[in-house]
Amino acid sequence: MFPYLSICLFFFFFLWTFFHVLKLGPGKWGSGQLPPGPRPYPIIGNILELGARPHESLANLAKTYGPLMSLKLGSVTTIIVSSSSAAKEVLHKNDRSFAHRTVLDAIRALDHHKRSVIWSDADSKWRNLRKVCNTEIFSVQKLDACQDLRQKKIQELLYYVNHCCHTGQPVQIGRAAFTTTLNLLSNSIFSSDLASHTSESSQEFKDVVWGIMEVAGKPNLADFFPAIRWIDPLGVRRGMAVHFGRLIEIFDGVIKRRIELGDTGGRKSDALDALIQLTKQQGSDFRCIDISHLFAGSDKKMHLPLCESDLHHF
Question: How far apart are CA 88 and CA 161, in angstroms?
Fold first, then answer.
């Protein structure tokens, strides 16, 4: 059974590759409106030219082909922008034209790409979500207002390190830094800590987040050959679904407890309150599961703005 299935899959892949090479044909690469770039090899394209350090390889290729070049990564044509002026043209002046980016197969796990503010289409739902994020999370006023919170979390970290020094306990720097960052982000969004320096409560969350980063950072055959995406050849999407599921369970619990509390009752409202109110608006297609997916990617989206805000105060 299994040898027969393997032969069928190999034959299918061989036929697909053969017709793909015929479709590309000699002389077709570099024609049309594509920017200049190295000629791709059959089937694999320019994947080998990326090497073990892709950022250095791309920088070297840009010296030959310019700040705007095209590569063939497997069967996917990829445009590389490597200068500030070209990036400004793409990301600022023509941002709407380039808004629909290629979605990595790992991000498709649990339909995360349909609910993420980064990956979803720029429709009315996305615009409402972006408006709430800009107002309640990323605005200059909100980031400046979190300055005292950041100082408080740093003081808690210093107190923990000092306590370990006096008691002779070893300090796990990675775990301590993760707990501080996690609590800073969670307080910025829903005004509560998710972890503690003196307990194991952050270990599960840490394992989930690092698992997501590890899976998302792996090269995925399905991203280079979208035609075989449906079989998930390396199991990347399945692995990401497990991590996303665990992370969303954690955030679902936080959201449920906030809904049960009801009105703020004198408590200062935060981003979570604004998002919950968005789900209650008449005609809104925004649901609580969308909030969980938003939080599932918030650690990466918020880290840079918070760091930039801290730098402005030096």
Answer: 43
